[in-house]
Amino acid sequence: MDHVFCQIQDLIIGVIYRSSNYDIVGNDNNSKLCHLLADISNKHCLLMGDFNYPDIDWNNSHTPDNASIECKEFFQCIEDCFLTQHVVTPTRGESLLDLVFTCEPDIISHSEVIENLGTSDHNMVTFQLHHDCQVFETKRQCRDYFRGDYSAIKKELCSMDWDKFKSYDTITCWYKLKELLLGLEEKFIPMRKCSKNGVKKPVWMTQKLYDIQRRSTVSLRNVSVEPILLS
Predict the structure, then answer these.
(1) Is 228 domain-assigned?
(2) Cβ pair 34, 77 in contact under 8 A
(3) Which stretches of 41-109 are DSSP H helices?
(4) Same domain assignment for residues 101 and 23
């Protein structure tokens, strides 16, 4: 089972793929999925993906007698977690494999199965999500050193009586100098609006994901490709 999650304020959004190839994923794949759903079902969540349970009749909320044990366990898990499934038409041939679950039935509307994407044998699923969230505008400011009045700073420093620093010890001297320079910065270096690290990242991307993506980009830049000589 593969899954990835992100969070937008209080809404947790997850994309899940459950493989039906037990030689690859093992026999406990179904139980792991049910445990995951049980853990997240008490939160405000939206879950979607290819779950590979073709035997479940979602139109009538029923599993036939000849359905696999995994299908019956999964369907019972959905019932126990009080999740609502919104897709009711087949997404791959005659099978309904791609599902959309929510903890609240009203946050999804206009669910529709449309054409496939590219060469995929699965059809795409579209829907409207109704979620109120408050947008915060971050007004972070930093010093605009390009517009600083360095002539005025130089003039102020030239007019200083530096001899008075001789009466201070090293630590006091440092703090006095630091106080002086910060005061000049405050006075002669204007402020400007700026984004964090100068880079705007998507609202769903955590700092950890951003750092991983940045390191991957740097690593790719450092890769040297050697020419292959064919004899």
Answers:
(1) no
(2) yes
(3) 69-81
(4) yes
* Range of the structural domain that residue 151 is part of: 141-192
Mean pLDDT, all residues of the chain? 85
Mean pLDDT, rounded, for 105-112: 90
User: pLDDT tier at 2 (50, 70, 90 boundaries)?
Assistant: confident
Distance CA 188, CA 196 (A): 23
184 and 110 housed in the same domain: no
My answer on whether 125 and 178 are in the same domain is no
Strand 45-50 with 11-17, pairing:
parallel
Q: How far apart (Å, rounded) are the C-alpha atoms in residues 81 and 98?
A: 19
Q: What is the dihedral of CA 60, 64, 68, 74, to 10 degrees?
A: 30
From start to end of the chain, where are the E strands? 2-8, 11-17, 45-50, 84-85, 98-102, 108-116, 123-129, 141-143, 191-193
Q: For 123-176, what is each residue's pLDDT tens digit?
A: 999 999 998 877 666 677 888 988 999 999 999 999 999 988 888 899 999 999
Q: How far does Cα 136 stand from its chain's mean position?
A: 17
Reported as a single tens digit per residue, the pLDDT across 190-209 is: 998 876 555 566 666 777 77
- Verify that 69 and 158 share a domain, yes or no: no
CATH number, position 102: 3.60.10.10
Domain count, the chain: 2
The alpha carbon dihedral of 12, 13, 15, 20 has a sign of: positive
Has residue 96 been placed in a domain? yes
Confidence at 90, pLDDT banded by 50, 70, 90: very high
Q: Which two tokens stand for residue 193?
A: 């609006």
